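Let's practice the habit of predicting before peeking. Look at the sequence and jot down your guess about where helices and strands might fall. Then scroll down.
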Amino acid sequence: MKTTVLKSAVSTNDVLKSLVASGEASAGDAVVALHQSGGRGRLGRSFFSPEGGIYLSVYIEPDLPAERMPVISAVVAAAVCRALDLFGVKAGIKWINDIYLDGKKLGGILCEAIADSAMHLRGTVIGVGLNCFPEGTEFPEELSDIAIGIEMDGPTRQRLTDAVIAALRAVGDGTAPDWYFYYRERSVVLNRRILVIPNRGESFAATVRDIEDSGTLTVETDKGEYMTLGSGEISIRPDGGKF
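Done guessing? Here is the structure:
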């Protein structure tokens, strides 16, 4: 397993996907960049990636049937939080895989499936971005109320980067610790009121009642109906009030 370190990249996920497609990367290989010019998250959103943060991708080929692949996002979120634990950072998880600290977003995860020419699932490229910056780094105004950063010197960032890569490789080879109870413990949405933003249809308010071992979310609507969410987005309010 090798790690490629770049001074800058448009996106570490894009670099690693290209390496996989060309046969130049295998399971466990990683790409790290000191800066991303086009960092992105889920649904094509941009991800603030100034020089000095932690931006990395790891390619894994987990031994899971295709119908179980959605659980990867939850397993990865737990793995990243465990790595942060080693550095005294007790982060939380906003379903499915946003990393939160003190009610704000500390990092994001983007899992992208890789398929062969016959559209058979081959593996997954996992991208992780963490707002662990050099002293003095500031967020743009539009992010200052919703994102949080941790000041970290270069050697500490390197150790955390190595720890996250090791945790993701463990997810790939099946040696990662059980994620489920840890994920529930670190959830910032369990038993909270949320706004559900489905891929199709109108948004609606609900209360999170459970997190299943498939990584799906069970919610109760204001009409008392229970629903299982396997995709889409959710929004939370710091005060748990009405939407």
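How did you do? Helices lie at 12-21, 71-85, 154-173, 180-186.
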